[in-house]
Amino acid sequence: MFSVFRDLLRYNIEFAIGCVFVGVIVIFAGLSFFSPFDPTQVYTVIPDRPPDSQHWFGTNSRGQDMFWQLTFAFRNTLGFGLTVAILSRIISIVVGLAAGYLGGWVDRVLMFFNDIFVAIPIFPILILFYFVMRSNLNSFTLALIMACFGWPFDARLIRAVTLGLRHREFTRQAVFAGMSPLKIMFEEHLPYVMPIIFATALANMIWSIGLEVTLAVLGFTNINIPTVGTTLYWANNHSAMVVGVWWWILIPVIIVIILFIGLFLLAVSLNEYIDPRSRLRRMGA
Amino acid sequence: MADILTVDRLKAYYLMNYYGIRREVRAVDDITMTVKQNEVYGIAGESSSGKTSFIKVLAAAIRPPMRIVAGSVIFHFGDRNVDVTSASPEEIESIRWKHLSYIMQGSMSVLNPVRRIENIFEDFAARPLGLSGRAFKDRVITHLAKLKLGPEVLRAYAHELSGGMRQRVTIGLATICNPEFIIADEPTTALDVVVQKDVLSLIRDLQKEMGSSVVFVTHDMSVHANMADRVGIIYAGRLIEEAPTRQLFVAPKHPYTAHLVASLPRIGDTTQRPALEGRPPNLAAPPPGCRFHPRCPLAIDICKKEVPPLEEVVPGHRSACWRWRDVEPLAGSIAVARVAESVA
Amino acid sequence: MTALLEVDHVSKQFGVGGLLSRRRVDAVSDVSFAITAEVPDIFTIIGESGSGKTTLARMILGLEKPSSGEIRYAGKVVSGTGSRAERLEFMAAVQPVFQNPFEAFNPLKRVDRYLASTARRFLGTADDAATDKAMDEALQKVGLSLAEVRGRYPHELSGGQLQRAAIARALICKPSLLITDEPVSMVDASLRMSIVNLLKSLRDELGVSVIYITHDLATAYYIADRILIMQQGCAVEIGPARVILDAPKHPYARLLKASVLSAADAGQGKLMPATELMRECEELLKRDDAGRLVTQEDGRQVREYSAGSP
Predict the structure, then answer these.
(1) Which among A7, A276, B57, B112 has the fewest CB atoms less than 10 Å away?
(2) What pLDDT was estimated at residue A284?
(3) Would you say the pTM of this structure is higher than 0.90?
(4) Are strands B21-36 and B181-185 parallel, antiparallel or unpaired?
(5) What percent of chain C has pLDDT above 70?
(6) Cα separation of the two ends of chain A
(7) Hey, CA dihedral for C266, C268, C272, C277, is it positive or negative?
(8) Residues in chain B within 8 Å Cβ distance of C222
(9) Is the pLDDT score of C178 beyond 90?
């Protein structure tokens, strides 16, 4: 595992760039633990100051230092994306492996629910949840809800792979070696879908962060928790662009784009690692 | 008879470098051989012995990561000599199908599944033949008749035909331009025994009629026994023995060939067959000296140090073995069976 | 004589095609044979692709349910649907060996893992030492040792070694019947005979009965005691192997034998296909009456058809 990571880092430029981008933002988010400011407090510094040596990213109209405010925002956003990714991965692994390996009515029932979740429009549902729960809707609850919607496509992917594995001779060998279905699913087949899980986890993070930003900008999340989305919500609320506080919007947007590009590059390069055909193309010339 | 193909000290290696692992696989290592006109030359070898790489070079399908490291592969078509290791893509394009053609293993990969057979024939052969319309179609129909296929096949799609018919269509594609040289890569491996014999006899008949040369690759020694005029045995990237078919089977001069021949079971014979132990060497790190020595019952010191040259040991019979004089036909082989029969 | 395995008028149909043009195909129709418990036997099923030999093997292993008829192992019906305990009991007695040695083990896992699992599950070996002992014993029987296999991944072993390890895995639970489906067709020529010889020694030395499924008449002649020749799902000739292969009677059996390429004729270019027999076989398939197996004096059964045009 580690040697794969090292080789990828050394010989795959996309992967290296992706790592640098994501790494920088993780470190940036980590700085929040050393912040001199409480992110929920307002008017702790002089408002509307452009970036200078004292406030690297300037200050916003609510009197918050943007640098430290954004460290919190990215910590929460990353944490949110990661939670959604992990939770939805767990669901998709269990559903995908069980449907693919066990087949029969298990497969039909699971895929029935899978198709329902594919068909339900997620955005109105999230807004509905917001109106029902209002201030009770914390980050984790939102992540949980989104995880419940983020698994079906990947579960189908995992099911397709497992379906192929089920008919391979080594699966039969395992059956006649007396291994239980659980053991076959999680020890024989899981290693095969692991790379898919990593690659889709990154894509899933992009999806969930993007959705969270959208919701927050529109004000459909708990706006008191600093995230990338709520930062933009407040900036919009204070008409930051109109009054000329451009850094309030531009800087978080740039950083979130860096994060997205980083995650995207990682997903792409991992995909390439999984798919030997694209690896051959790279080897080609 | 004149030679149509001359392969001289050919070395083709796979040079790979991905994610930091550098590997050099010597798939074809110093092969020298010739194929005569109007001859079926059989190439035998196990999986990953390098036989597929070798015929890829012959077929002028040299693509990275495979590289020609040394040597030449020259085809003599009439007055024209073409070295496929250095020829330009246009030159290779000009000999393809018309002079040099192929019959591949998976007929489905050659036959485009969304084109009718007649369209596939047009795609392949209309231009090299210089025919079109009715004349072209008549030519295809007469050609297919030789392969025992009716004209109704032309309207069919590949998936509508049986395995044997598909393989006959592929043979038809490969032979319609009367090529002087045909490369057949395991053309019957996927077929059932009954169909296999049928297809083999068709290839043989067409070859005789056209006077072409065929390089026939398969791992199945009993196919070579009945198909080839001469057989070359490839082991671990090297040609280790080459002889007229009958001679190779009756009096092999290399211990590996002797084992291959002896281990063939035959109907009507239940004597214990010998089995060869060990495994074929890894071509990325082949053993020094003779590459067969770790598995060879006759190996002595020199075998471990020096590579035996492929030399003519009997007229027309080349072997790369330091101890070829000591190679005896093994129990179970044809020669031994013959002796037993004559005694009885 | 008690029967170890009884295949009793077994048929299997599959539905082929889409929703509209669905038709039923007989993969196996009305096949019967039995393997006795007293004398170990190599029972060979011969047929070309599509003859139903693999379907038959899958039904014997309980991976597929017969459409009609019954397969009994030691008097109990093989269904594959019973409780897990019953299934495990069956698997301890009947073990498979598959066609492709390179596919037989998960390439991401070590080979010994399957051997250890078999030992623990079926022999109930409690500690590592007992498991190792059982593994080593089985590997010795196939000419390998635990030291050669332990910790190795499939790609580190040759095709012949892998196939032998797969056979050793099946032998750990001391089965009385081994179902081998084309076990040598993917193994290199130089390693093939070591597997075939091994199957022979399993019968002679360990008393294991083997069902050997193949399309290769020559190896069948070499090791089989009895053979069953299948043509498109039907048994056309069944009986003592050498008697049948020396002088097959059914046209299809004769065609198969006539199509075998023999190395004995090396260099003589004997490639004339048996056109006459091919036509005869095609006509047999077109007949409405399926004929019936008639027992002959020499102990074999041959499918015979009522006189008259098809």
Answers:
(1) A276
(2) 41
(3) no
(4) unpaired
(5) 96
(6) 27
(7) negative
(8) 265, 269-270, 273
(9) yes
